[in-house]
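User: I'm new to structure prediction. If I give you an amino acid sequence, what do you actually give back? Let's try with this one:
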Amino acid sequence: MDIKIAENIRTFRKQRGLTQEKLAEVLGVTTGAVHKWEAGMSIPELGLIVDMADFFDVSVDALLGYQMKDNHADSALKRISEYTRTRNKEALVEAEKALKKYPNSFEVVHSCAKTYLIFGSGGHKETDLRRALELLKQSRLLVSQNKNPEMNEFTIYGEMAEAYLLLGDKEKSVELMKKHNLGGMFCDSIAVNLTLHLKRYEEAKPFLSESLLKSVATLVNTVFGYALVYFSQGEYDSARDIINWGLEILYGLKTDSEANVLDKMFCLLMTLLANAQIRSGNVSEATDTMRKIGEIVRVFDANPDYEVSFRFMATPERGRLYDSLGNTAAESVENILSSIEADDLLIIWKEVMKAEE
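Assistant: Good question. You get back a string of structure tokens that encode the predicted 3D arrangement of the chain. For your 357 residues, that looks like this:
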């Protein structure tokens, strides 16, 4: 068994924003004692370990840093996963066996929680959903063991909110997501619950706006990334198709003829479109696209506006959109062309900008 209590005491203390002196005061020990624990010079007595686990709201095993050394849990989880895939209720039997054998394993507890959530969601079976909720709460206390970068305490809160919703406690579901809405990760779900289940339409508007803003940023980044992948594979038709799809969605969000941050987003994707065109042998099309970009750049850079002003945005004051490619639209275009080593387009671009002067 690998014990990491020194490292964990220090980590949990800092997460609470406590000094060694303050933690010592809470536990009724000297500051020197806490220092020795964190330095690995001594180990707290069992009673103090229990008190600290309670204070930090984690399990004793999590505080100790206990890690299982065998692979039996993996085998159990594979069986549970296979049963769950076919909706065989043996999954629940196997889950309970695994929980008895590995009650303090984050991976086991969380996987079993998800299994109960899946079975409970099918027919909104209360007993399964209650068990899922119980296990999700338990897994949150063990989350320090988690090694999956796509999972954290906040994603677990999201799963708990799903369980509450399926149990019919819509208010609890929404409030839980609101409380733990890190970086707006639950804005879309909050908005759907507020509108569909609670009929609180005005309250949903800020969350819808934030969700739309995040979706636009995600769309641009995703299309950008796909285009670069297609370029690397020489699939220029596919690159053109996904860029045009992204541009079509962005065009649909434009409210008026005044320049705003969407125009800069147009420029970024249109620059990639020009590259797809010229690599396909369509030099004239690529040149026309670069000219259009030049017109947009000239207007935007003359009076840059990063305030969010989209169609459907109920609360535009909630945010702005920026990119890291350049301080101006012109600089962003040039940086993209340099990054993708489109020297031929860079020459065309400089001619376009010279003509605009």
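You can read the tokens as a compact description of the fold. Here is one thing that stands out. The mean pLDDT is 90.
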